[in-house]
Task: structure prediction
Amino acid sequence: MDGGLQPAIPEELAATFVPKTNGVYMMGSNGVITCDTYGNHPTLFKKGQEPLLFDTSVQGNLDLNHNQAWTEACKTGHGSIEHKALTSSFDYAGPFTETVLMGNLAIRSHQLRRENASAREEYFGRKKLYWDGVNMKITNLEEANQFVTKPYRKGWELSNL
Result:
């Protein structure tokens, strides 16, 4: 779910699930797992059973653990044992994040519309998008590129280093 855009609520969730503005649900053959933003409040829903809230208190401080591991990997360098032990190094997380964000571009461009010759609204963004990662742009729907980045104030522009 993203900013109020929500998919249909699965049957297993219909009676007990309260949709939020943002979150995730993953459907499996034995039920549905939901969580809030940042993975908070993971809950398992099975048809005909009470929702099961997972106890995450035994995990320790995941942010601290991740940040310490990432810092050590930066210190020891690319290819080090510490780097290879990361669950989310830049060489993995960067392309993965880019792929996931394409979903956001698809959702946003799906709503693009304009008036056609018959004075009716036409949803012209409802098509497969082609991504040029090197140039950071969609190649077959220029109007969708407005969602890729934004104008920056003077002095805060991004540069290619």
Q: What stands out?
A: The longest strand covers residues 24-28. The helical segments are 62-76, 81-85, 90-110. Residues 62-147 form one domain. The two ends are 34 Å apart (CA to CA).
